[in-house]
Design a protein that fits this description.
The protein has helices at residues 4-29, 46-69, 102-120, 124-127, 179-195, 202-207, 249-252, 256-260; strands at residues 35-38, 80-82, 87-93, 96-97, 132-135, 139-144, 149-161, 164-175, 211-216, 221-228, 239-246, 275-276, 282-284, 290-293, 296-297, 304-308, 321-324, 332-342, 347-356. It is α+β, with helices and mostly antiparallel strands. Among the domains are: 182-260, no CATH class; 270-357, Immunoglobulin-like (Sandwich), CATH 2.60.40.10.
Length: 357
């Protein structure tokens, strides 16, 4: 049987433990006077979270379309085709399979997205509202799946206003683009070319749920154009993916039909060149959004895509829209070339002047 003294000691120890735990919990929950809240987004910083979400969405969409126009590359490899209106990687070059892995394309997409994010993210409007925003290094990770691309962005933000500090870091967006499916079909096509470089399997081209077309650039070089109308997006109907192949000159210098005529059947079809509408002299102003839509027509109703030669902006490849905000230091008069290309290789180019004030 315990004595009253023992019971008193037990009670004292219990109170002491409760007191110590309580002090620990207090210091964990209240570090100084700043209350730190992580990941759970409070309403007062929701506009900042929404702003970054919109930036990653815009950056992902723009980056994916630029990626498609360069065959999955941010920086083209050593062997590429200069068509005069667009540069494309060779997926097959003189008996060598040069097709990039899916992991390489994911890394190239990350580079595009980081570049576009740097253009988009500017917290000055929130700082004017009294927020202090501290950023850490961004890390983008793209994952190409069969029917979508998942973009994960780790971008640590510390947001402070008055005596409250918020911390958020994870952002993501899912691109409704079947880039994994497009990659698999492209790989299957290149594998066939590796086995039979001088034979175009028309049955394969026509049997897939993608619009696969071949532009004969010259007797040795083909451009493969993939249009996917299942990859829907808010800014365009179809997703465009391009790459080139080149066979050894010794087999094509006399013409493919002459040497391997039994394997390839070609029909001569006259292609009407697309025509650009007149692009007017335009004026853009520093720190103000500039928008312009380039138009084009094609008698054959071929699918068209647009290309520019300037670092000021990137014309939308399918819509022909130009949208950007000039920055201080970009004042001046610029001569810019815009080219429209149809699915059969026909094209039209035009120069126009853009003045930035």
């Amino acid at each position: 049987m315990r004595s009253k003294g023992q019971i008193t000691i037990y009670i004292f120890l219990g109170l002491l433990i409760f007191f110590v735990v309580g002090i620990g919990v207090y210091f964990i929950m209240d570090i100084g006077k700043d209350k730190i809240k992580t990941e759970k987004i409070d309403s007062d910083i929701l506009p900042i979270k929404t702003f970054v979400d919109e930036c990653i969405k815009k950056a992902s969409i723009e980056s994916a379309y630029k990626l498609g126009l360069r065959g999955g590359y941010y920086k083209l490899p050593e062997e590429f085709l200069d068509t005069g209106y667009v540069n494309l990687p060779h997926y097959y070059y003189k008996n060598i399979n040069l097709m990039p892995s899916k992991e390489i394309i994911e890394e190239e997409l990350d580079k595009y997205i980081n570049t576009e994010l740097n253009k988009c993210i500017n917290f000055s409007i929130f700082e004017e509202q009294g927020f202090s925003i501290f950023t850490d290094a961004k890390k983008t990770k793209s994952s190409i799946l069969n029917n979508k691309v998942i973009i994960d962005l780790n971008f640590p933000l510390t947001i402070k206003k008055e005596n409250v500090v918020h911390q958020i870091s994870h952002f993501s967006y899912e691109l409704p683009i079947r880039l994994g499916h497009i990659y698999d079909i492209s790989k299957e096509l290149i594998d066939k070319i590796v086995k039979e470089p001088y034979y175009i399997d028309l049955t394969f081209l026509l049997s897939r749920d993608l619009d696969l077309s071949v532009i004969h650039h010259d007797s040795c070089t083909d451009i493969y154009v993939i249009l996917d109308n299942y990859s829907k997006n808010i800014i365009a109907d179809d997703y465009l993916f391009l790459f080139a192949t080149k066979i050894d000159e010794k087999y094509c210098k006399f013409g493919i039909n002459e040497t391997f005529g039994s394997n390839i059947s070609e029909t001569s079809i006259e292609n009407n060149q697309p025509i650009l509408g007149l692009i007017n002299y335009s004026i853009a102003y520093i720190n103000k959004n500039f928008e312009y839509k380039v138009t084009a027509s094609d008698l054959d109703n071929d699918k068209l895509f647009f290309i520019d030669d300037t670092d000021l902006f990137n014309i939308h490849p399918l819509l022909g829209t130009i949208q950007f905000t000039p920055k201080t230091g970009q004042e001046g008069l610029y001569q810019i070339n815009v080219t429209v290309v149809d699915i059969n290789g026909g094209f039209d180019s035009q120069w126009f002047y853009l003045e930035i004030k």
